[in-house]
Design goal:
Layout (H helix, E strand, L loop, with lengths): L14 E8 L9 E3 L2 E3 L2 H14 L3 E5 L8 H6 L2 H9 L4 E3 L9 H8 L5 E3 L3 E2 L4 H4 L5 E6 L2 E9 L3 H4 L7 E2 L8 H12 L4 E7 L2 H10 L5 E3 L11 E4 L5 E5 L7 E9 L11 E6 L8 H10 L4 H5 L1 E5 L15 H13 L7 E5 L10 E4 H7 L5 E8 H11 L1 E4 L4 E4 L1 E6 L8 E7 L5 E3 L5 E7 H4 L11 E9 H12 L1 E2 L7 E4 L4 E6 L2 E6 L7 E7 L1 E7 L5 E6 L2 E8 L6 E5 L19 E9 L9 E2 L3 E4 L2
Length: about 625
């Protein structure tokens, strides 16, 4: 953490504690390959935790939930391995994640019974499952160098929406008052004279911000759920001069966080004396032999999955689905597999939620273990018939919450959505493929046959497929469907995005100036690089560049590339554009009255692909 100036006195701290933390490990107990390099692994995390404990005083190890689900270790052992590992590594505190309920609350209770660490969650009502309620406390107080430090656990208030295997477990005060149990737990700690309070949350970084803003008594938040890798802490400052520090490590044990929190005599965080560091877990870190031996023994029953080759990936297929505001490479592959399996039923459309996909495929041999890592859940395939109106509603729900777990990848659909519009009215157009492979506007009254996982179909993450007919549930896990697809196709490649186009606002407009038509761009980031594209109509297809980007046009063609917006984020093109060698498409010297469509791709300076934006499509008629 940078030594940011704060209102706190930067004098000698009264207490400094070191919190080593992880989140969203998702059963990634062993190292795994990422772009050909081995990362993660509990044996390496163990080495760091043990080394730091030997060299520094007042060290606590904390996990922010979702230790279960994500690899065959969970499928085979149901969480026993993960609890044993936290015990071996000497974790002190843990809060529950939503995926801990994937095998039901009774299984969670049975696994946590072996825990040697404190389990905290203040807003979970597990009273209907006494065995689980016995294991979970709202908070815990640790006495460190004769000072009391309180820790309060928090789970996502969306638990009942994102988890369909809760049984009778519930969130306390769901809805707008979801923070009340957390505030009450903090208040109880204060009544006990605890003036140093830390939340351990599985709510996601945006809700962590809300917690920090609404509960200024909290000094730090050790977060999880959103898989956010924070190289530097988020610091939320309060009117009374105090501050709350928010940290999170990403996911899958790729990193271990080390937060050195400095407190003054009144229990307030001293920002200049507080430090933060993320350790990237790679082969430069030794592995602890006892942890290696434990995992080697536990891995024996699942060794067959590693040796069963299904296909060959001719290139890396990116599994960072939340990175893409348009269709993702791994999502496209899975949706194609679902649609192919549903072809006999007549399915032409498939959906897969991104929360149900965990990781990608390295270039090379694809094994059964790889597939289980991507689709670790016991979700089954459902075939059904729905109206175009239902599909439109489903897509609106998909794009109403960003590109996180709710977002759907698709097969058999092309659509564009505008993130600047209010949720519920973001879809600009939808096209569906017909039985002859032609793209047609989605007909709200027509019946379409779909393939989808049972989690989404039965209301996971708030989806509504009510009114569906000819429902044919299967007993096929999605991992089995994908495995069969890979065996049939033998080789696979990542597909360029050509199904979903994310656009942002009406930044393009046509204006008249001195009798001439001017294409005007406003609202771009200053000095963005611009690519003007023309198409024959609305649709979705990709254009080449440093990385492919989908545009909301059919038959897209780059007219002008390399233009740069000015200091105000503006640019102007005089129409018609002079495009040497081609007078047949939009923007060139068209015949008078000819219609076409235009869009501009906006690449902010020094920005990642995920920050690229595309304008809404604009119809152009040559004068």
């Amino acid at each position: 953490m940078s030594t940011a100036a704060g209102a706190q006195d930067a004098g000698k701290p009264d207490l400094v504690i070191t919190i080593l933390h992880t989140n969203d490990l998702h059963s990634h107990d062993e190292p795994f390959l990422e772009h050909g390099k081995a990362v993660g692994g509990e044996a390496r995390i163990a080495h760091l935790i043990r080394s730091i404990r030997r060299s520094a005083p007042h060290v606590l190890a904390v996990d922010a939930g979702d230790i279960f689900q994500g690899t065959p270790f969970f499928k085979f052992y149901h969480g026993a391995v993960e609890v044993a590992l936290l015990n071996m590594l000497g974790y002190d505190i843990y809060t529950i994640g939503n995926h801990e309920f994937d095998d039901g609350p009774e299984n969670l209770a049975a696994q946590l019974k072996a825990a040697k660490f404190d389990i905290i969650c203040s807003n979970l009502d597990a009273s209907a499952v006494p065995a689980l309620a016995e294991e979970v406390k709202p908070s815990v107080v640790k006495t460190i160098d004769s000072r009391k430090v309180g820790f309060v656990g928090v789970i996502t208030p969306d638990l009942q929406e994102v988890c369909l295997t809760l049984g009778q477990v519930r969130i306390k005060d769901p809805g707008p008052n979801w923070m009340e149990p957390v505030k009450a737990a903090v208040a109880r700690l204060q009544e006990q004279g605890v003036d140093k309070i830390i939340l351990v949350t599985h709510t996601g970084v945006e809700r962590d911000r809300e917690l920090a803003e609404q509960i200024p008594q909290v000094d730090a938040i050790i977060g999880g759920h959103s898989h956010t890798r924070l190289e530097k802490p988020i610091v939320v400052r309060h009117e009374d001069g105090t501050a709350t520090v928010i940290v999170q490590t990403g996911a899958y044990g790729r990193n271990l966080g080390e937060l050195r929190l400095a407190f003054d005599g009144r229990g307030r965080v001293i920002l200049p004396a507080t430090d933060y560091h993320l350790f990237h877990i790679d082969t430069s870190i030794p592995q602890e032999p006892d942890v290696q031996a434990f995992l080697r023994e536990k891995g024996k029953p699942i060794a067959a999955l590693r040796n069963q080759v299904l296909a060959t990936a001719l290139n890396y297929i990116d599994g960072r689905s939340a990175f893409y505001p348009w269709d993702s490479p791994i999502g496209d592959l899975i949706c194609d597999a679902l649609a192919e399996r549903g072809a006999a039923y007549g399915a032409t459309i498939a959906f897969q939620n991104r929360g149900g996909m965990r990781g990608g495929l390295e270039k090379g041999l694809v094994t059964s273990e790889s597939v289980e890592g991507i689709l670790p859940f016991d979700n089954k395939l459902v075939l059904a018939t729905v109206t175009g109106k239902t599909i439109k509603s489903v897509l609106e729900h998909s794009v109403s919450g960003g590109s996180g777990g709710r977002f759907l990848d698709v097969h058999g659909l092309k659509f564009a959505y505008d993130v600047s519009r209010p949720p519920g009215s973001r879809i600009l157009f939808v096209q569906a493929v017909d039985n002859h492979g032609r793209w047609q506007p989605l007909d709200p009254d027509r019946q379409y046959k779909i393939a989808v996982n049972d989690y989404t179909f039965h209301g996971g993450e708030g989806y509504d497929f009510s009114g569906a007919t000819d429902i044919q549930p299967t007993q096929e896990r999605l991992a089995a469907v994908l495995s069969a697809y890979l065996i049939r196709h033998k080789t696979i490649l990542p597909q360029p995005p050509s199904r979903i186009a994310a656009v942002s606002g009406q930044v393009l407009s046509l204006v008249s100036h001195r009798g001439k038509q001017i294409l005007e761009l406003r609202g771009a980031a200053p000095h963005s690089t611009l690519t003007l594209v023309a198409g024959s109509g609305q649709g979705v297809d990709w254009i080449a560049g440093s990385a492919p980007v989908p545009v909301p046009l059919s038959e897209p063609r780059i007219l002008v590339s390399g233009a740069v917006a000015d200091d105000a984020g503006e640019y102007f093109w005089q129409m018609p554009l002079e495009v040497p060698g081609d007078r047949s498409r939009a923007g060139s010297e068209n015949e008078r009255g000819q219609k076409s469509w235009l869009a501009v791709v906006i690449h902010p300076p020094k920005a990642a692909l995920a920050n690229t934006t595309v304008s809404s499509p604009l119809q152009y008629r040559a004068q």
